[in-house]
Amino acid sequence: MLYALALFATLIPTIAFAQSIPQTSSHTIIVGTSGVYRTTSAKTDAQNEKSIPQVISEREAFRSSISVLTPPSTTKGGTSTVIPNTPEVDLYYSPRNWFSARNLNLSMCASGCTYSSILDFAAWINTISIVGNYQIVLNISAGTYPASGSYTTYVDMHGPNWSRVQIIGAGSGSTVLNFNNLNNLNNPAFFARDGATLRFINGLTINGIGGRTGTHTWANLSAGAAFSVQGNGAVHAGGDMIMNDWYYDVLADMGGYFLGDAGVTGNRAGDANFLARHGGSIHCERCAANGAGDVTNNLGFNFLAETGGHLWADGSVAKGGLFGGFCASAGGTAWYHNVTATEGSGAGIFAFLGGILFADGSTSSGNLIGVKAITNGKITASNVRSRNNISDGYHIDHGYFEGYDDTASGNGGYGAFIVDGAWARFFKSSSLFENNAKGKSFVDLGAACSSTTDTDCHTASSILIN
To answer: What pairing do the DSSP bridges indicate for beta strands 407-409 and 197-202?
Structure first.
């Protein structure tokens, strides 16, 4: 008798945290807050509540590969439970209704699969508990989703489960997700927030529908992103990802982090294809950005780190930025080694408003200006090739440039244009400045102020080309 009482006493802590155990005659596994699994092995006697749960260890549960994907039938506060329900129990001690303790490979297709909508899958991931080091993979078949129209809301990723999730399409050329981005309050397609980390996504094209109204024109409240990563959230995207017609293809903001494998491509953006700001970071080497512009708001950058953002894009390609290709501004810092910028209406490589960038081994060709540093922007770049640009090869206006073995050739302006207190050093580069329409260089010697209201006075600039 004493042994039986002792055994019952050892079960009290586990039972005390139980809630809403379903009435059943089979073994039903649910999760308790005490960190163990509990199972009812006999039909519950709702009147005298004599059924005693059997306690099994976490190891035993894992070994049996248990997964419960539907919620218990008993509702909160119901009477058919082992432990009577109270508001306090419901509020503080209710376990998750669903959980998974095994690896799962789920499917998405038009019909006949686990899911037909990416939004339904996301809602399920945000609800369940994944117990143990297990993964959930969603395999999306070739097709366009939804079959007609576009998703009117976004994939909201929050909580710890997403670090166990992979979303895999059949290939960016055959699996397409369409999201409305017209007057949608600037909402994204995929939104990682509050520390959520999407383990991996690949093999998809993500289209924004409606927000882009023409070349470099956008509807109001349509400034969403294909991937918006904020609040210490993170996303890892594979190299077979294409984003089309988003104001931002990737936006890393407020501590968010985006990792893109080689090949990630963004097309026809507004403000920027890839933007890192406010402590956000993007690491996307050998990625591609094609076309960015918002003519109404004087924006359009292929790659941009601003206001404390960090961006690594070594080996990447930028094309057709309305104001800049590879850029840094307002305290942003960027690493753009061995990049190529072409066909831009602004500068291929551009630092302004105190932005800092590094661009060794890079090429800027066919842009309005090859390399530009203004308003205290700073560029350190050696072995740069600034060729065949419409205006100057290097344009430094109240900015800073330093490098060696830098080339300026075939440009429509000067090889180097240095004005308004700018500072530029081109070491071992003199022989590489050739065939520029206006000559090797122009340097502003400054002008003294003739009166306190003189607006033409400015500080002398400094240049060295040897």
So the answer is: unpaired
Place of tokens 């339904």: 120
CA 369/CA 377 separation, integer angstroms: 15
Query: CB-based burial of residue 135 (10 Å sphere; 0-12 exposed, 13-18 middle, 19+ buried)?
Result: middle
- Half-sphere exposure of 111 toward its Cβ, with a 13 Å CA cutoff? 1
Interval 59-76: pLDDT, tens: 344 334 444 444 444 444
257-260 and 281-284: which strand pairing? parallel
Helix (H) or strand (E) holding 363: strand 363-365
- DSSP codes of every residue in 378-399: EEE-SS-EEES-SS-SEEEES-
Residue 314 phi, psi dihedral angles, 5° rounding: -55, 140
Region of poorest pLDDT, from 68-72, 166-170, 192-196, 353-357:
68-72
3-state helix, strand, coil in the chain (%, to 5): 10, 40, 50
* Model pLDDT, residue 450: 65
User: Per residue in 283-310, pLDDT tens?
Assistant: 999 999 999 999 999 999 999 999 999 9
